[in-house]
Amino acid sequence: MINQKNIKRNNALIIGILLVLFSCGWEKDYKRAAYLSIQPDTDLILAPFPFNIFDREARDAITLSHYSKEEVKNILEDHNLSWETLNHEWQLDAEDENFSKEVNYTSHYTQYFYDTEIPIWIYGPKWIRTGQYSDEINQQHIPSIYGKILNFKFKNTIDVSYLEKIFKNETTKPEIIVTVVVDQGGRQLYKAHKGAYPFLEDLKNKSAYFKKAKVAHLESHTAVGHMAIGTGAFPKDSKIFSNEIYTYADGKVLHRPVYQGKNKDWDLSEMEVPSFADEWDLSNNNEPIVVSQCYAARAAVGMAGHGKLFNPVTNESRKNSPDNDYVYWQDIKNLSWSTYTDAFLVPKSVQKYNLYQFYLNHKKDISTHFEAKNPVDLITKIHHFQGSEFQAKMDGALFRDSITETILNAKKDKDGITDLGYVTLKATDAVGHLYGWESKEAEQVLKATDKEIETIFEFLKTNFGDNFIMVVTADHGAAPMPEISNGLFLSHEMFFDSVNQLLPESERTKHSLVKWVAHSQLSLDRDLMKKYQISEEAIIQKIMSIQVKDRNFFRKIWKREEIPNLSL
């Protein structure tokens, strides 16, 4: 006998998916982002179906996440997904308001709304008009807003005249501009946990708040978002277009992180445009202090730029030589903070922030989801530390200490020269990947992050009065956990194996038709294609035929020539 309830559930799921799949404008968004991000040797642009994740192999271990029924219902509604289906698949107790589920991994890189919708707060009453604005704005606009306030034109300046209404007619310059990035803090995180961010909710009424801000590039990744915030450039110009690049050799998938050269050393020249900080610092005879902090190097570097290795291109700039800026990140092996000394400095403050000692000092005050017995044990659980209140509190405290050391104690706070401070509160990203941004663990970290932003704000008010600007934004959002969205996961290993089936069997582990692939962009080995008479169309058809759990993974693939000029 046919189960009518199951039919209704399945119909609801189908309708929900169709509403997402056929929403207007997604192809235009993808093509515009592709145009702004495409690399010189990119051949194909890949677009998965919504909620699908194309990433490195998921973790072997699964994580127990905790949820509120009410919050999950709201999340599902936002994504046109069915609570009834989820309730049935997870076999939940209808009476339980809170429940748990073992989950694996989620990520971000697409042009779908959950990856691209981000908030932007701009606080600075002397220079900025308070209000909630519906104008479209991207991360790339942020440096140009700074340039407008400082009357400073830099290489990647974007026209912000359409935002004239937010600027006050103030000629004095702020003593410091602080940029706070809530990593993976897309609008989906805030919608999921209403009431968990009272300070940021109140800041809407004291700042210029942009509710339609958006990630406009491919891919929606940490390295790319921070580069955009730091430089104002798009990936087609900066050449920073993903967190890592994947290749294939000797039957293995290899990946190279961004800013890591061929010899696994730092290569800051990969970012082919100057940052706002690079140019502002040099134009002011290296007088401004630049501080950029994140536990991930790709974020700290993307915001700050090239430091001492900045290579100015104009003769006028060459009158001065660039200096080292304070740019630093975590050294996991030593549970400490470090930097690339050829280009950057670390403040002395970092010496107080050994990760294990910080954990010991604060574990009585923090109710968290992991426990470390010793430093070695903490290294094995480092992602859980980074996705906890410990990381959020450490990030805020270290940043304030660094500003105190490098600016306040150095008497640079009233010298009339605007300093630049960048800090990424990245615990929201780590907890989102591990537990899902829908989880109670993510809510706990969001509360701690909101508190740290409030403390940074009060610190700035105490020490700079009304002579500072603070911007809060995100580098990207994230997809729902596949266990919630019924999304599919495709590893790069599976991808290379599938595409290389077009080669003779004896050649499949020796060579690859894919020269490199990130998550949305792909370059083909044209010589190998010619040798074995394999067409681009055949490769596209092969990729489009890839299935996971008997469902097609990719929604659309565009050739390079199919990407029109759809610039902003």
TrEMBL record:
<dbReference type="Pfam" id="PF01663">
    <property type="entry name" value="Phosphodiest"/>
</dbReference>
<protein>
    <submittedName>
        <fullName>Type I phosphodiesterase/nucleotide pyrophosphatase</fullName>
    </submittedName>
</protein>
<dbReference type="InterPro" id="IPR017850">
    <property type="entry name" value="Alkaline_phosphatase_core_sf"/>
</dbReference>
<dbReference type="InterPro" id="IPR002591">
    <property type="entry name" value="Phosphodiest/P_Trfase"/>
</dbReference>
